[in-house]
Amino acid sequence: MERRKILLGSGAALATALAGCSGSEGSGDDDSDDETKSITGSETESDDDGGNGDENGDESAAGDVPGFDESAFALESETLTVESIDRDGETVDIVAESETTNYEELLDELGSFVDDIDAAVVDADAFEDEVETLAWVVDHDGMKVVSFDVDVEWLINYRNGDRSRDEVASNVRETAE
């Protein structure tokens, strides 16, 4: 008799476990784009595409800078290395790591930055249409050394010969903090 109770109990447990694995709601159709119940119990439409939710409605990849070739962007600097380039709307955030904490030495390199940025701009029209500012932050061992902004209009004027490299560097220097 005791053996029957054990068999019956384990059979019920197995049936319960299998029922939980086989499906729900009796339909067996698990379409995540169908209606789902919200917390309030009302039915709502779900647009879950299985992604990670990082999409911002842009058709370009996250961080993609139109008209700018990140792989061609190399600083001609012995003290700086670009760590990241991320686009947020009309601003491109550039984080660089410095081997020095000398503020003036870093600002003196601004002229070469102008040429380095210009060399990476492959489609000036697309770049100018989508980007307004390059916001730089230069760190040393995790601490900010300097930050500055580069107005894209200054770069376009430089590219078109309407402004010298020194003029652009001077404008950028004025934004330095």
UniProtKB/TrEMBL annotation:
> Which region ranges are annotated with the description Disordered?
19-70
Q: Which Pfam family, just one, is annotated for this protein? A: DUF8159
Stretches assigned to the DUF8159 domain: 73-177
Annotated PROSITE patterns: PROKAR_LIPOPROTEIN
- Domain of life, source organism: Archaea
Enumerate the InterPro entries for this protein: DUF8159
According to the UniProt entry, the coiled-coil residues are none
> Which residue intervals are annotated with compositional bias (Acidic residues) in the record?
44-58
Q: What is this protein called?
A: DUF8159 domain-containing protein
Upper taxonomic lineage: Archaea, Methanobacteriati, Methanobacteriota, Stenosarchaea group, Halobacteria
